[in-house]
Amino acid sequence: MGPIGLIGPQGPIGPQGPAGVAGIEVIKTTFSSVAQMVFTAELKAKATCSTGKRVVSGGYSLTGALPRSLTVLTSYPDTGDPNVAEGWVVEFRNNTSTNLGVVNVTVYATCVNK
After folding, report:
1. Within the chain, how many helices (H) and strands (E) appear?
2. Using an 8 Å Cβ cutoff, are 41 and 89 in contact?
3. Which is nearest to 59 in space by CA: 69, 74, 70, 71?
4. What are the C-alpha distances in Å from 74 to residues 2, 42, 77, 88, 114?
5. Distance of CA 64 to the CA centre of its chain
6. Is residue 4 part of a domain?
7. 2 Cα distance to chain centroid
8. Strands 87-93 and 42-48
9. pTM of the entire predicted model
């Protein structure tokens, strides 16, 4: 193998790429179960995007020993109905034999301009 050659001239500037996302915001919504979370009790929680925004991701947080015992059934974007604001939905169930009492769960939706 021979020696490395000289560096060539810089090439022309390429075309501008597409615009990135704009107006990012993270919505944080905390829900309390309205009833005791006994065995097989379920809780559905949604963080809703502001008007003119679309959801691009989401998640949840469980704080405290008892809420951490909840099972997450589903975690998904809610985007199908044009008459309903977009957001992120998480559904929880108590699959333990312990009465977890009233629990708090936090759902997050990351939203951007449509």
Report:
1. 0, 6
2. no
3. 74
4. 59, 11, 10, 10, 25
5. 20
6. no
7. 54
8. antiparallel
9. 0.80
Q: Which residue has the tokens 């909840």?
A: 70
pLDDT the model gives residue 51? 92
Output the tens digit of pLDDT for each of the chain's 114 residues: 889 999 999 999 999 999 888 999 999 999 999 889 999 999 999 999 999 999 999 999 998 888 889 999 999 999 978 878 899 999 999 999 999 999 999 999 999 999
CA distance 27 to 85: 13
Cβ distance 46 to 88 under 8 Å? yes
**Residue 104 belongs to some domain of the structure:** yes
Token pair of 101 as six digits: 């009492």
Q: Which amino acid is at 50?
A: S
Range of the domain at 109: 25-113
Amino acid at 79: T
Residues 6+ apart with CB under 8 A from 61: 105, 106, 108
Q: Is residue 6 part of a domain?
A: no
